[in-house]
User: What shape does this take?
Amino acid sequence: QDDGVVLETERPAVKPPKRYQVVLLNDDFTPMDFVVDVLMRFFGMDEAKANAVMLAVHTQGKGVCGVYSREVAEMKVMQVNQYAREHQHPLQCEMEVV
Ligand code: TYC
Assistant: This one.
């Protein structure tokens, strides 16, 4: 019977939300230990993983810390950049849509 409900069969009614990579950039001044601390503190990595990601950024120029919703990625970028500034390091964190 017609109860006003329209069933959509041709395409999904909503698109899945975009996902965002949070990326760390290399620089010549931020101490390696500080970068490892950041990766453990803000991205939940253990020390071995944090060391591997830090070295990948150091040798390749940038590296992915994680993939998140826009809101969470924005929060991580703000927190990391603020934390680096508080400690007077030039470390930079960015986000890019996947
Ligand atoms: N290149 C820095 C050094 O030699 C270490 C470093 C690694 C800095 C990763 C930033 O995102 C970074 N002390």
Remarks:
- The chain has three helices and three strands.
- The first strand starts at residue 20 and ends at 25.
